Write a sequence for this structure.
């Protein structure tokens, strides 16, 4: 009891103890190394995808335009603005940031008299902690979104090289789920895609297992979804926000996955439905993606559409310019049959200027669309290209598609470094393998591998198939022997492709010369349109720029009855052709809607 | 000798079980204690009817802190719920993070890494020490011993420094995330933690001498606020309140979670079930937690592989229909999350079971009768109640 | 847990059983079977601790689920009893005479879900929401966002932009 009375007095021992408080907390008390203090944003790294805004459970983040950063195409042009009246410093925005640009400093002191100041754009509104090194950064191995692309099954090189069977198998449901799960739905892909396909939405449909809903979404913006699911240039994937810290989402394969998972006979029912007949008639020249997209849209609007196609099959460049191992013909046929089910009539083997005159179309139809693609190959025009053993890639590809017996020699050289060069090289390699049992083929490209034009996977797969690709080689001359037979191609090493003014003007290192052996040389350096069908008169009237017809933003030429669309206007790009088709269809509908129908039915 | 109240002036109980209190008689007085109360119990209020110095009826009023967390979570994705759960309870927020994360992991079928479990346990024990430090200050403060609060607040602040360097925040740590923990221990953490633990031990010794070995404290707490062990089940009493009544219930030992199976400890119990015993059980519980922190730091396995489990894309994370209940032993007793999912990306229902729900409501209302008003604060604090657990 | 379920099943008509963990199971029980099952569990199976009592609104199925979570402290196992109530007429028998603490839970459920527990002490008292005259707020059809938008003013000057739309306008300025 006595102890209980005395014991409390021990508190007095603290009488002479120094205070434990921090004397100058404003200066002497830095936040811990991983303290979640004020935000920092590396605005050059940031792509403005808005994922931080999406995850913020306090709605503290707005995406706002930042003028000095605007560079169309690179990113959204927006940057996060944080409202510190709402922020709870949970750092989920830092954790989810797709580029790793958003971090937090260890600073926690900020005094203002104006509350509005506490809404700021980190990295843009300069702050004293912008360069602070300490603070919360997302730890390694810690991701809130998966980074690795689902593996796509494909045939091994030695299995695929002897035939034209489709190489990729397409995603299984399991693979597709893994891949679809990775999407953060930022929509930068939608903005970039020329046809503005609703990518995050159809990816969500895959997650939900709603393939019919997904298909409906696809065909709202793209009647060539099966085709684009295989061979689209997928600009969407080049802006995908997932690519910065991992692989971009395999948007193209996911699109294909949807089309693979809806039974062929259900397509028409899901996609179809059209407005009542308008009595208007439109002629379309060329049954490629641009022409048929226009046909698809116009038919849905209730117009009568007749497509005139010079070749014996539909698809245009998608059929005649892309090898079967990438774009199986039955898929293309099915795609076109859906369009035909809307009442679109396609007349094959009908060449304008030969089987039917342009004037006739002008007379009989309310509008005419020129979508003739790029079926003529360009030439390097180096010495010897007039030799019969020098061929153009597009011509050979068309022959192969048409089932013509294309004779390939044992050794071949291809000039060109784009996707068409890869297409012809790989097609010829297959024929070589079938004929001789081995591949002896050299591709010489002007560009070096760091600036290569063809898709990386095309290059990789070409190498796998035994094709020898040499970069930075400039073609100088077709080597021809005394008997007039081609024996190879002489090239020099490329020093630079463009001159100081940025003009195409390659310079070479003449000491580095190689003769590439080959009794057939194939030029794959570009294509142009065969505009001979227009006739002199019309050619004269139309406005031209660098060999292409000039059109207004809606695709109309200076002739009020004639529109033009697709590769022949904008160069090779299937998804651009589709977007073009939509635009032109809208424009045609707008203009002929006012006019009186030229013929009844 | 225990204080013997004079019951001669008590109101009669009516047939409906309600007391017949006639305020106009002048015998009774209504007294509101709270919601702003110095006893560090958070914002709740007691509506007391006193007769002289004695409470004849007490009613607990809550609602001053209601933020509707359970409902808010229903419109947040599973990852978005993670930063808000800790805010349910200021002094010991980590239990919310743990219970929520564990419930989501169980329903989504996610297995977390071994080291993450150790770090989680470490954080929970650190939080327990802090919570008890606040309690000791509060309990002493309720009886006028302000200096204890100053000491315990100081060591709590040291522990907050450890929290800051480990989790990146001092109060709301937001560190135990579904899938694991955000980061590993920083370099040199163990040494700094040891210094802090030593400081805590020294302070505990001072507290023991100045508070527990104090004639006034003993006089004011021994034999007061007795909880009959028979009430433990019917009133859902858990944690130190039950252990002080001699019932050795501790979730850490009964349903060992995280890495408690790998740690050596005995639940701390007492016999007398009064305010003093409950305070003493908590003081000894801190000593045990200090020991547990040391055990955890010395036995924790080396890092092998990522701390975080592979999560699906959290932006559209859906969890199949199901329900579960996850509990842990927080400083006040059984803390638990009942989580129901419905296959969507949002929880269908989250119910937070805080020990104060029963301690501060039905139990306190029952215990407060016959208590001298001078002891009301001390009694309330001795139940270690946090109103935010009641109304969430 | 399944053992317990099988044992109970010989005595009471029981609904669906969910074996959640080694030490946790959920059993659906008929409304009028709840009391006998509770008594049995408490007095014969050692489930003496009422952990919590709460409700789940299955609005699409037009019913409320009441969850009575009981714990056997000796064996450290838990069982949750699910009772489904008609959402149109949500009334349930009180159990405060078995566990006095249930009165608090029931009071809260009455206020937050509008589920009535006649004869539960103080069930009609305000628990948290003084002067509330809207829908019981924990019901699924009570929209917190809408309520907050109507009740509180938003901070002015907050504008956000959709990255997809904004980027599209920059890339394709000609499109409408």
């Amino acid at each position: 009891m006595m102890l209980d009375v005395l014991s409390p007095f021990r508190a007095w021992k603290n009488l002479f103890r120094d205070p434990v408080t921090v004397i100058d907390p404003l200066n002497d008390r830095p936040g811990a190394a991983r303290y979640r203090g004020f935000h920092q944003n590396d605005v050059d790294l940031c792509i403005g995808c808005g994922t931080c805004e999406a995850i913020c459970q306090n709605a503290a983040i707005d995406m706002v335009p930042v003028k000095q950063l605007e560079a169309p195409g690179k990113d959204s042009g927006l940057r996060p603005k944080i409202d510190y009246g709402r922020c709870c410093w949970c750092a989920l925005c830092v954790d989810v940031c797709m580029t790793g640009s958003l971090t937090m400093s260890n600073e926690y002191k900020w005094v203002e008299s104006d509350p509005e100041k506490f809404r700021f754009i980190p990295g843009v509104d300069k702050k004293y902690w912008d360069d602070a090194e300490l603070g919360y950064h997302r730890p390694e191995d810690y991701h809130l979104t998966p980074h690795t692309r689902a593996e796509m099954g494909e045939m091994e090189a030695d299995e695929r090289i002897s035939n034209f069977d489709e190489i990729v198998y397409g995603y299984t449901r399991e693979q597709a789920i893994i891949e679809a799960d990775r999407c953060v739905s930022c929509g930068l892909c939608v903005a970039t895609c020329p046809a503005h396909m609703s990518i995050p939405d159809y990816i969500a449909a895959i997650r939900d297992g709603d393939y019919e809903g997904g298909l409906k979404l696809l065909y709202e913006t793209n009647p060539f979804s099966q085709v684009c699911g295989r061979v689209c240039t997928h600009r969407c994937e080049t802006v995908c926000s997932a690519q910065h810290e991992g692989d971009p989402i395999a948007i193209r394969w996911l699109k294909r996955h949807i089309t693979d998972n809806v039974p062929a006979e259900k397509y028409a029912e899901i996609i179809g439905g059209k407005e009542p007949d308008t009595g208007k008639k439109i002629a379309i020249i060329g049954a490629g993606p641009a022409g048929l997209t226009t046909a698809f849209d116009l038919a849905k609007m209730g117009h009568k559409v007749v497509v005139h196609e010079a070749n014996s099959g539909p698809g245009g460049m998608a059929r005649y310019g892309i090898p079967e191992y990438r774009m199986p013909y039955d898929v293309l046929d099915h795609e076109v049959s859906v369009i035909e089910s809307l009442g679109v009539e396609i007349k094959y083997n009908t060449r304008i200027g030969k089987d039917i005159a342009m004037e006739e179309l002008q007379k009989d139809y309310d509008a005419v669309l020129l979508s003739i693609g790029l079926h003529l190959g360009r030439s390097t025009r180096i010495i010897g290209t007039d030799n019969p053993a020098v061929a153009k890639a597009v011509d050979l590809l068309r022959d192969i598609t048409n089932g013509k017996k294309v004779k390939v020699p044992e050794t071949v050289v291809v000039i060109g470094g784009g996707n068409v060069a890869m297409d012809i090289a790989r097609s010829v390699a297959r024929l070589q393998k079938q004929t001789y049992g081995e591949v002896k083929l050299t591709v010489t490209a002007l560009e070096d591998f760091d600036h290569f034009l063809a898709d990386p996977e095309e290059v990789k797969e070409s190498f796998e198939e035994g094709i020898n690709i040499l970069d930075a080689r400039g073609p100088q001359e077709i080597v021809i022997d005394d008997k007039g037979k081609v024996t190879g191609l002489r090239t020099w090493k490329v020093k630079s492709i463009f001159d100081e003014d940025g003009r195409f003007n390659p310079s070479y290192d003449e000491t580095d010369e190689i003769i590439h052996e080959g009794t057939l040389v194939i030029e794959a350096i570009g294509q142009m349109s065969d505009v001979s069908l227009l006739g002199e008169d019309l050619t004269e009237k139309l406005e031209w720029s660098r060999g292409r017809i000039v059109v207004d933003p809606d695709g109309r030429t200076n002739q009020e009855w004639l529109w033009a669309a697709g590769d022949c206007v904008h160069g090779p790009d299937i998804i651009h052709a589709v977007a073009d088709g939509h635009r032109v269809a809208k424009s045609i509908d707008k203009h002929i809607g006012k006019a009186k129908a030229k013929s009844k039915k | 000798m225990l204080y013997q109240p004079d019951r001669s002036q008590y109101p009669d109980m009516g047939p409906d079980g309600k007391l017949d209190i006639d305020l106009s008689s002048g015998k009774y007085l209504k007294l509101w204690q709270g919601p702003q109360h110095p006893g560090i119990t958070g914002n709740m209020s007691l509506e007391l009817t006193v007769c002289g110095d004695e409470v004849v009826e007490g009613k607990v009023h809550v609602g001053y802190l209601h933020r509707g967390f359970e409902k808010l979570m229903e419109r947040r994705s599973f990852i978005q719920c993670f930063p808000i759960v800790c805010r349910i309870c200021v002094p010991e927020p980590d239990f919310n993070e743990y219970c929520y994360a564990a419930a989501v992991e169980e329903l989504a079928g996610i297995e977390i890494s071994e080291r993450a479990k150790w770090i989680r346990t470490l954080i929970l024990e650190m939080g327990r020490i802090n919570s008890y430090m606040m309690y000791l200050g509060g309990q002493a403060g309720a009886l006028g011993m302000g200096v204890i609060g100053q000491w315990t607040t100081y060591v709590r602040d040291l522990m907050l420094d450890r929290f800051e360097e480990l989790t990146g925040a001092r109060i709301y740590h937001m560190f135990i995330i579904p899938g694991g923990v955000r980061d590993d221990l920083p370099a040199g953490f163990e040494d700094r933690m040891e210094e802090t633990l030593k400081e805590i031990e020294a302070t505990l010794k001072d507290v023991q001498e100045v508070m527990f070995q104090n004639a006034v404290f003993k006089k004011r707490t021994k034999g007061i606020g007795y909880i009959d062990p028979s009430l433990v089940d019917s009133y859902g009493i858990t944690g130190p309140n039950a252990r002080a009544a001699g019932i050795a219930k501790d979730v850490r030992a009964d349903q060992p979670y995280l890495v408690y199976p790998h740690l050596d400890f005995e639940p701390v119990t007492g016999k007398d079930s009064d305010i003093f015993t409950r305070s003493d059980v908590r003081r000894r519980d801190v000593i045990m937690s200090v020991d547990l922190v040391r055990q955890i730091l010395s036995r924790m396995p080396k890092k092998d592989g990522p701390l975080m489990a592979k999560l699906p894309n959290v932006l559209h994370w859906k969890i199949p229909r199901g329900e579960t209940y996850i509990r842990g032993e927080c400083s006040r007793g059984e803390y638990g999350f009942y989580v129901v999912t419905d296959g969507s990306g949002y929880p269908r229902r989250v119910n937070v079971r805080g020990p104060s729900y029963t301690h501060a409501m039905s139990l306190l209302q029952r215990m407060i009768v016959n208590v001298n008003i001078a002891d009301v604060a001390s009694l309330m604090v001795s139940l270690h109640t946090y109103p935010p657990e009641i109304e969430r | 847990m399944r053992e317990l379920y099988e044992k109970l099943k010989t005595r009471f008509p029981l609904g669906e059983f969910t074996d959640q963990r080694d030490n946790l199971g959920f059993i659906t029980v008929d409304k009028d079977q709840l009391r006998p099952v509770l008594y049995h569990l408490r007095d014969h199976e050692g489930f003496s601790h009422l952990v919590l009592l709460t409700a789940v609104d299955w609005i699409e199925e037009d019913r409320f689920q009441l969850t009575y979570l009981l714990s056997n402290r000796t064996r450290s196992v838990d069982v949750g009893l699910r009772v489904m109530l008609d959402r149109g007429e949500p009334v349930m028998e009180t159990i405060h005479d078995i566990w006095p603490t249930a009165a608090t839970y029931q009071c809260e459920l009455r206020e937050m879900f509008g589920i009535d527990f006649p004869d539960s002490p103080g069930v009609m008292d305000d628990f948290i929401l003084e002067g509330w005259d809207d829908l019981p707020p924990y019901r699924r059809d009570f929209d917190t966002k809408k309520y907050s938008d109507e009740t509180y003013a938003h901070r002015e000057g907050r504008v956000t932009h959709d990255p997809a739309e904004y980027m599209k306008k920059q890339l394709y300025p000609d499109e409408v």
About this structure: Chain B has a mean pLDDT of 87. The first strand of chain B starts at residue 29 and ends at 33.
